[in-house]
Design the sequence.
């Protein structure tokens, strides 16, 4: 099967066209059009990308298998955990969100739940202490802000 | 000797107590990063950049620390090659061939010590080469005009896939993607490009976020897929029995390996993998049938290790003098320079002489530190190897999050990093190399500036890009660099694989 490269080539070709079209829509720079404007380089890139994506579609390499099984679900879980971690870092605070995120990741990668969340909590507290008290960088406390000693 | 004067000044910078401390810290962290499975040097340096940045370290200190990390990672990579037969990174592959058999014969301690000495010799030779060659090359590069620079950047991209690269078209594609991402933001004439009105994009995509996402997050995803969850059993390291005679025996091999490695490191497109490969095969030829290569010959450990370390120091030459890195890790170091507001290239040797020579001196000092650290502390590093990746990788990911968060304290950057991680995973699945993407991101603005500059001078005549002999030469090399791998690549790859398979046959 050589579908991966063909599909990706098509996606990139579409991207190249959209990108090249985008370059024609730039407003004219102040002081009138020049021979070389902000659109020159992007147009060049769009041409090169179109050619190379066409090549990819015509001469694709053999596929690597995608994980369409349980591993795939694990991957999706990992990405969801990372997205949630990003979003909850500020509201929940660093320690709680790290315990949850690192713990869940360790657990899904094969650790026992207890060990996993203990690892998460210990690493979260340790990094928080190092950052806030040794390095002087502020990480958010979030829900734990009542502990703050000021 | 002007160079000597600069070098002495450099030692002045590098020996300042706080710089020395950070060099030591960097060397330790680097060895750790190199030794731990799933954390290559590029990855490790990438994760540490945001930390160095948000700690507000002075430019020279930050550069010294991360160069030490770089040097340390090259040392560390050999530990898992020798003990577990798992190369920490690609260049360490050749060390497995004789290192692992040595460990199986109960000579793990000797193999580790020999490789440490060989690494030291290789780095030392290459650093001396760097000191001699870099100022000459920097002077030469001062004659480059915008057209030559544009051609030079093309050369850098063309040779990045390396001589062993698979599909050069995929390198082109990856470079295009990187360059395209680099055009996002407000350009130098004040025009908004591809910002879609999103405020966070006005200043462009921060390449540090992209690098950490592409390397660190995609590594985590790959690890989950490979499911290599548990820790590896460790080989016990016996007491070191190494005489001066053993060290003297490997000296010629280390010396040859170091010189070859340095040359491979400086040349565009060769890199550390080729350096260690050439060093190993040449050594086999020189020693001939007398040596027991592949069965645990100490010289078979020394040569590729010296080659690999020589190449990694050699790779700093084009990065420092031309601002054009030849490998993933030097690209990441370039990212640090740019984010410290230092313009890499020949002018750096005059404008930021203290940093350049401080870094070079730090490289020398770092190598001594690493040699001294490595022999007694090897036991600790070996213990760390048994930390199961299922605990390690989530923590490394968390450190990456902390680093990115501490730069700007915004959640937007974190989402962006995760998005880059997923992109990195997909690209790696499609066997599209990530380093050209990063190089495109880094060099994009500079490349566009030179193109516009050249065309402005010539009033829009594109012929200016290949108007001088120098520029034509660079274009020709770029073309060769792109075409040669399709001819030579398959042969070289087959040979490297051939060696590896023979080895595993023995290992089993």
Sequence:
């Amino acid at each position: 099967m050589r579908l991966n490269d063909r599909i990706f080539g098509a996606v990139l070709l579409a991207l190249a066209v959209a990108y090249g079209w985008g370059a024609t829509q730039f407003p004219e720079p102040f002081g009138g059009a020049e021979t070389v404007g902000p659109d020159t380089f992007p147009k060049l890139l769009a041409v090169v990308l179109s050619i190379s994506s066409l090549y990819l579609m015509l001469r694709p390499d053999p596929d690597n298998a995608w994980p369409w099984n349980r591993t795939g679900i694990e991957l999706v879980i990992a990405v969801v955990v990372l997205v949630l971690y990003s979003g909850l870092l500020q509201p929940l605070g660093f320690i709680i969100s790290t315990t949850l995120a690192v713990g869940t990741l360790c657990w899904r990668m094969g650790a026992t739940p207890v060990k996993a969340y203990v690892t998460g909590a210990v690493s979260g507290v340790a990094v928080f202490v190092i950052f806030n008290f040794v390095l002087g960088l502020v990480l958010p406390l979030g829900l734990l802000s009542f502990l703050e000693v000021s | 000797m002007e160079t000597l004067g600069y070098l002495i000044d450099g030692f002045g910078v590098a020996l300042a107590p706080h710089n020395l401390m950070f060099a030591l810290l960097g060397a330790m962290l680097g060895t750790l990063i190199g030794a731990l499975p799933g954390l290559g040097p590029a990855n490790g340096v990438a994760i540490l950049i945001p930390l160095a940045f948000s700690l507000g370290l002075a430019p020279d200190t930050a550069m010294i620390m991360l160069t030490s990390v770089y040097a340390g990672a090259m040392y560390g990579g050999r530990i898992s090659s020798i003990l577990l037969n798992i190369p920490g990174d690609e260049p360490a592959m050749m060390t497995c061939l004789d290192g692992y058999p040595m460990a199986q014969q109960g000579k793990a301690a000797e193999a580790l010590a020999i490789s440490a000495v060989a690494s030291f010799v290789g780095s030392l030779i290459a650093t001396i080469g760097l000191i001699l060659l870099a100022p000459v090359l920097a002077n030469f590069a001062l004659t480059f005009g915008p057209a030559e620079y544009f051609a030079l950047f093309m050369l850098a991209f063309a040779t990045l896939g390396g001589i062993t690269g698979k599909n050069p078209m995929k390198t082109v594609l990856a470079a295009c993607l990187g360059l395209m991402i680099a055009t996002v933001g407000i350009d130098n004439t004040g025009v908004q490009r591809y910002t879609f009105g999103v405020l966070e994009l006005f200043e462009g995509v921060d390449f540090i976020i992209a690098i950490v996402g592409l390397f660190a997050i995609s590594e985590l995803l790959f690890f989950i897929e490979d499911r290599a969850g548990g820790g590896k059993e460790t080989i016990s390291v016996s007491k070191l029995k190494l005489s001066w005679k053993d060290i003297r025996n490997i000296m010629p091999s280390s010396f040859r390996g170091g010189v070859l490695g340095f040359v491979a490191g400086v040349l565009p497109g060769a890199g550390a993998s080729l350096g260690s490969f050439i060093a190993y095969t040449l050594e086999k030829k020189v020693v001939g049938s007398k040596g027991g290569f592949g069965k645990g010959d100490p010289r078979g450990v020394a040569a590729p290790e010296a080659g690999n370390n020589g190449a990694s120091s050699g790779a700093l030459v084009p990065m420092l003098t031309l601002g054009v890195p030849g490998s993933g890790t030097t690209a990441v170091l370039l990212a640090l320079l740019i984010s410290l507001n230092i313009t890499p290239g020949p002018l750096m040797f005059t404008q930021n002489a203290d940093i350049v020579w401080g870094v070079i001196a730090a490289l020398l000092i770092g190598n001594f530190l690493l040699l001294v650290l490595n022999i007694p502390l090897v036991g600790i590093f070996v213990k760390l190897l048994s930390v199961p990746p299922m605990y390690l990788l989530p923590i490394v990911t968390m450190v990456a999050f902390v680093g990115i968060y501490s730069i700007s304290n915004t959640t937007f950057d974190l989402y962006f990093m995760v998005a880059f991680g997923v992109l990195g995973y997909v690209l790696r699945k499609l066997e599209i190399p990530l380093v050209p993407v990063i190089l495109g991101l880094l060099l994009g603005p500079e490349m566009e500036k030179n193109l516009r500059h050249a065309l402005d001078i010539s009033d829009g005549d594109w012929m200016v890009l290949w108007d001088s002999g120098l520029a034509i030469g660079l274009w020709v090399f770029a073309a060769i660099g792109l075409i040669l791998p399709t001819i030579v690549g398959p042969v070289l790859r087959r040979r490297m694989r051939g060696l590896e398979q023979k080895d595993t046959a023995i290992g089993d």
